[in-house]
Specification:
With 269 residues, the chain is mainly beta. The protein has two domains: 4-163, Immunoglobulins (Immunoglobulin-like, Sandwich); 171-267, Immunoglobulins (Immunoglobulin-like, Sandwich), CATH 2.60.40. The protein has strands spanning 4-7, 24-26, 31-36, 41-50, 57-68, 74-77, 90-92, 96-99, 104-112, 125-136, 152-163, 171-180, 186-194, 203-209, 215-221, 231-237, 244-253, 258-267. The strands form four sheets. Strands 1, 3, 5, 6, 8, 10 and 11 form a seven-stranded mixed sheet that branches. Strands 2-4-9-7 form a four-stranded antiparallel sheet, with no helix packed on it. Strands 15-14-17-18 form a four-stranded antiparallel sheet, with no helix packed on it. A hairpin with a 4-residue loop joins strand 17 (244-253) and strand 18 (258-267). The protein is globular and about 65 Å long.
Length: 269
């Protein structure tokens, strides 16, 4: 049985000082999660469309690995940079395509799960990489100095294959601290670490209690992907909370499983 889950996120890298618009878009999401078994093949699709009605758009396609460090950084690197890379399992049908105005194009990829898997004596869990799609702005062939590319948009389509029967993941709060974000608002910054073997997508829930044990505030941070043996940062805004000390419960809810800690929060001016 195969299941695909789509969620939406966007990685943009702009190599120009001028403003640009995404003439090429991805229609079916930037995270594709599949379930499969050893020895089986999984087929997936990434659907592109050139929204420009006048100019053709060139796209290039290549594979990279994704790593989430506990200092909050997400890094893209060459395939094979971690033990659970899909780099040796995945193939796709094109490395470059010129999309005509308003044209749709399907990037088809195949994940060939080996008959035998041995990652530190373990043969199940989540495996992942990212299919990168670079979109060049229209090429100006008439430029007097030759061909000129003005800017570029890069999509990182994260592809995950869950192999075997899922077991309960093990997560922990790596770090919890009060801070002010870029807008000056007080927030609770939480680093979540996934010590398990499968991808988790937890929603964080914070509930504050006054000295009488009455609940005065309950806020959530929307789910994010946390890869096995990787970390992800969450930010929970603490709006309209009076100055003072509060007992609180911080919970990570990731689909039937809940992990929580009792903490104390001090709100200052």
């Amino acid at each position: 049985m195969k299941k695909i889950i789509y969620t939406f996120a966007l990685l943009l890298l702009v190599f120009s000082t001028s403003s640009i618009h995404a003439n090429v878009i991805i229609l079916n999401g930037l995270t594709h999660v599949h379930n499969g078994e050893k020895g089986k093949q999984i087929k997936g699709e990434i659907i592109l469309q050139n929204l420009n009605k006048v100019n053709a758009q060139r796209v290039t396609v290549y594979l990279q690995d994704v790593l989430q460090s506990c200092d909050g950084k997400t890094e893209y690197s060459k395939t094979g940079s971690h033990l659970r890379s899909l780099g040796n399992w995945i193939t796709f049908n094109t490395s470059e395509k010129l999309l005509n105005p308003n044209e749709k194009f399907v990037i088809t990829y195949f994940i060939n799960i080996p008959n035998e898997i041995n990652v530190e004596n373990i043969d199940y869990g989540s495996f992942w990489s990212a299919l990168m799609v670079d979109v060049d702005k229209p090429i100006n062939e008439d430029n007097q100095y030759g061909v000129q590319i003005n800017s570029k948009i890069r999509y990182g389509v994260q592809i995950i294959a869950n192999v075997g029967d899922r077991v309960n993941p093990e997560i922990q709060f790596e770090n919890i601290e009060i801070a002010k974000n870029s807008t000056g608002k007080q927030v609770l910054n939480v680093i979540v670490r996934n010590n398990g073997l499968y991808l988790v997508q937890p929603t964080l829930i914070l509930e504050l209690f006054d000295k009488n044990g009455e609940s005065i505030k309950k806020v959530e941070a929307l789910f994010k992907k946390v890869y096995p043996m990787n970390c992800k940062g969450f930010e929970i805004e603490l709006l309209d909370v009076p100055v003072g000390d509060y007992d609180a419960v911080l919970v990570a809810d990731y689909g039937g499983d809940i992990f929580g800690n009792n903490i104390t929060i001090s709100i200052s001016k």
